[in-house]
Amino acid sequence: MTSALMKTVFAALAKRALQALIVAVVVGIVSFAMMQALPGDAAYRIAAGRYGYDMMDAAAADAVRLELGLDQPAILQLWIWLKALAQFDLGTSLVYGTPVIDEISTQLGYSLLLAGGAIVASLLIALPVGIAAGLNPNGIVDRVTFGLSVLFRAIPAFALGIVLVLIFAVQLGLFPVAGFHGPENLVLPSLTLGLGLAAVSNRVLRDSVVDAMRADWRLFSRTKGLSARLTLTRHVLRNAALPVVAYIGVQLAYLIEGVVIVETVFAWPGIGHALVHAIFGRDIAMVQGTALTLGLLYVALNLCVDLACRGIDPRGRLA
Amino acid sequence: MTDQTPHLTHSEARSAKPRFGFAQLTGFALLAVLAIGALGGPSLIGQDPAKQSLLSTFESPSRSHLLGTDNLGRDMAARLLSGAQLSLSLALLSVITAGLPGTLLGVIAAWRGGWTDRLIGAFSDAVLALPGLLLVLMLAAISPGSWWALYAGISLTLWVEYFRYTRQRARVVLSEPAVEASRLLGLSPWVLLRRHLIPEIGPGLLTLAAFGAATAVTSVAALGFVSVGLRPPTAEWGVMMTELLPYWREAPFLILQPVLCLIVTVLALHLSVGGARRP
């Protein structure tokens, strides 16, 4: 039993490790292309970043050129670039002058907080709505939530963010507009992302509740004398939970994309905000570091969903 | 024999005249209005979207400025129409450039199998390893403010969906006994595709195209909004939101205009395929 469980865990780990490797290579190559596309001489720019604009000269630039192999053909440079990445050398921010890894380690916490808040908000909305709609299919709750789901799905996260800010922060003054000063700042960004996530996941839950309520095993558990409430909590909801948890895996792409954009709307001090700033400021070391972290976060969250699905559903475990 | 009956009724039901629900008709109507607006562009109302007039900023809607003017006195209606032109043409182009090769590669992968299948599959996995918008963001950053970078990035992330869907459906269809029989009759691959595959995957591809167009419109606006995509003074919905956000107190109506345009466009695209989930 335990060895079977280990096997499935290892299979999931191996799949996601490969994905993490692909993420690193893709981010590395695109960042390198960004470096090459920059106008001007890269050696001068890096020398200026290292020694300061006043302290550098042509000799320093030549030394940098020789040291980093910038005189080599592009394909060799790409190899050197990826080798540095493989050694977790993310370099130094060209704008702040601090190691990229330090910047990211403070921002990652904020982004994780926002992502967690968004998932919690989406579940708080989707669970009651989806179960209520699923228990009475084609009822009034089902129809209304279907319409609302279609509507909220069509609203892009940042547009919803603007609308929520205008209503709740500006007109009603209930929550702060932007920044991070306390837990009350978490409400609007989480709600923005959570509504978008819940717009789809409540329908997934509704469908799986409908399926579970029609299943033979549900009828059997009622026939054997289990009360309606116990059937619901012990059998129906556990079976209905699997598609929803699996669907969180599908929604992770939306979540990570949303984090990037919504952090910018709310001036949230996280990685997505840093990535957008870095692109705007042509800070390639920061672009690479933040994009890599977001990509790896995506892989890690996917791994968590994989493992959670296998935890809920014993059928997926290899014999 | 019994297991073939549902298949027969299924295909018969599809060959009958399609019936559209209320939601779908609403979607078509909205799309038609948007298409007219995008085809005509700012010339529909005879205003220049870039013409500033600093003496008439934040004007209320009037006969000369149907939706008022923005912070630089530019005509809002003309700017919104110009934005519709930009977003919808980019969406249409990227759906075509993503859909055709995506579908073709899907058919080829399902047909050939083996190494061809594995090679294209590995490439699609590499594209899917990152969330789509993140990839578009980074590709757009290679040459910031460029329409072409945006277009290439969006197409590159969109083709995977067509590929995966077509490959999966084509594998099923091509292994059906009916296809085997047609092949044994000596019909050409083109006939097989036209008679067996296209009727089967067509509706799904249309749904993918509508959702893909919605994704493209949203991506353009999102990137414009965070100042990474197209740049001012381009009249693009996301860029307009960033420009008008500081003036929400003076003119909350102005910032809501591009927001509503974007929402209506995405909603129209979703509704036109029934508002269903992706296939």
Could you explain the architecture of this structure?
The complex is a heterodimer of chains A (319) and B (279). By secondary structure, chain A is mainly alpha-helical. Chain A folds into two domains: 2-86, no CATH class; 100-280, MetI-like fold (Orthogonal Bundle), CATH 1.10.3720. Chain A has helices spanning 2-37, 42-51, 58-68, 74-86, 100-135, 140-154, 157-171, 184-214, 216-223, 228-265, 271-280, 284-312. In chain A, helix 10 runs antiparallel to helix 12 (284-312). The two termini of chain B are 28 Å apart. In chain B, helix 3 (76-112) packs antiparallel against helix 8, helix 4 packs across helix 6 (147-174) and helix 9 (237-244) packs antiparallel against helix 10. Chain B has 279 residues and is mainly α. Chain B has a domain at 79-272: MetI-like fold, CATH 1.10.3720.10. Chains A and B meet through helix 1, helix 6, helix 7, helix 10 and helix 11 of A and helix 5, helix 8 and helix 10 of B.
* Overall residue-averaged pLDDT value of chain A: 80
Kindly report the oligomeric state of this protein.
Answer: heterodimer
The count of β-strands of chain A is 0
CATH-assigned fold name of the largest domain in chain A:
MetI-like fold
Q: Write down the domain tally of chain A.
A: 2
Layout of strands and helices, then pairs:
The complex is a heterodimer of chains A (319) and B (279).
Chain A lengths: L1 H36 L4 H10 L6 H11 L5 H13 L13 H36 L4 H15 L2 H15 L12 H31 L1 H8 L4 H38 L5 H10 L3 H29 L7
Chain B lengths: L4 H11 L6 H19 L35 H37 L1 H15 L3 H11 L4 H28 L2 H8 L4 H37 L11 H8 L7 H21 L7
Helix pairs in contact in B: 2-3, 2-10, 3-4, 3-6, 3-8, 4-6, 5-6, 6-8, 8-9, 8-10, 9-10
Quick rundown:
The complex is a heterodimer of chains A (319) and B (279). Chain A is elongated, with a radius of gyration of 25 Å.
